[in-house]
Amino acid sequence: MYSLIRRFLFSLDAENAHQLSIQALKLAGKLPFSILPIPDNPTEVMGLQFKNPIGLAAGADKNGEAIDGFAKLGFGFIEVGTVTPLAQDGSPKPRQFRVLEAEGIINRNGFNNDGVDVLVENVKKSHYDGILGINIGKNAITPIEHSLDDYQICLRKVYEYADYITVNISSPNTKNLRSLQYGEALDDLLINLKKEQAQLSQKFNQYKPLVLKIAPDLTDEEIASVADSLVRHQIDGVIAGNTTLSRETVAGMPYAEQQGGLSGKPLNMLSTKLISRLSSELNGRLPIIGSGGIHSVESGQEKINAGASLLQVYSAMIYQGPTLIQNLARNIILDKKI
Fold it and tell me: Which segments within the chain are labelled E, that is strand?
């Protein structure tokens, strides 16, 4: 059935197809039954109990509009966002492009979202009882030197409603954002967010894990430096990784020259390499959530074997449909808990 749905969706502009899918999932979320079961493959990570290790990556449901609909597809956890303090339109359209030949997607959305207050209201209205992550970012108009302010605003507003919070400093579509991944800028951000986390933990009498999302384009030296910062500042987890600026795997294909981050199948090997390198540096001191290019049980298992404890999917679901989630959740073999 999904092949027919995909044929229709792929006849539309990529962003229009996405918006239509979100609206359909909003309606599906109101159904009194699940579309697909939630496969039972439990694991414990960051002190949280996951029904299975397959999650929805951020970017699919930026405003938390369709949480209940996505929950009916079999995910073990869902991450919404990226959300910013203020609503923003993002980059000019068109800004999403399918690289059909490689089953990839290029986007330069630029954190388009309705703002953190709208997302919180949507989360409060949802009936989802699984693990929910909320991904936070900075507004484009906020100078990079004042980024901390935006992250603190979002952290304070979402803390009560999230099971974990992801700090996105790796989108390639917000000017200078990736500079926060390095050196003193990263240390300063993490020190202050950990202080905020401690205060909120005391206020709500509940500790919510703080996760950092990094880029797959880091050098080995940069990965080692990031890992050191993660451990020193006691960050609870890391998502490896975001979209890539590399076009090596799609060179010469239609739309490959478009600016933005590349996701989907072409990202698979690069993200697995990042996980492996990061795992070597971390040596089990905090968990890795593998994201980027997962398109089969084999590709997902490779990321688990490389050191990931959980997996996130988005782009491949667009190409293959929700049966991918079922296959991954039922067949991924987990061998450790962090």
Answer: 43-45, 48-50, 54-56, 77-83, 96-99, 104-107, 131-136, 164-168, 210-214, 237-240, 261-264, 288-291, 308-313
Active site residue 171: yes
- Whether residue 69 contacts residue 23, with contact meaning beta carbons closer than 8 Å, is answered with no
Choice among 171, 229, 276, 309 that is catalytic:
171
List the alpha helices (DSSP H) in 82-172.
116-125, 147-158
Q: Which two tokens stand for residue 167?
A: 């700090």
What is the tens place of the pLDDT at every residue in 139-182?
Answer: 999 999 999 999 999 999 999 999 999 999 988 888 888 988 88
2-31: buried (b, 16+ CB within 10 Å) or exposed (e) per residue? eeeeeeebeeeebbebbeebbeebbebbee
Question: DSSP state, 45?
Answer: E
The partner residues of 130 in beta bridges, in order of sequence, read: none
Report the binding-site residues. Answer: 58-62, 82, 107-111, 135, 168, 173, 213, 241-243, 264, 293, 314-315
Distance CA 161, CA 101 (A): 40
Binding-site residue positions for FMN? 58-62, 82, 135, 168, 213, 241, 264, 293, 314-315
Q: pLDDT for 72-96, tens place per residue?
A: 999 999 999 999 999 999 999 999 9
Binning the chain into helix, strand and coil, the percentages to the nearest 5 are: 40, 20, 40
What is the bridge-based pairing of β-strands 104-107 and 96-99?
A: antiparallel
3-state secondary structure of 55: strand
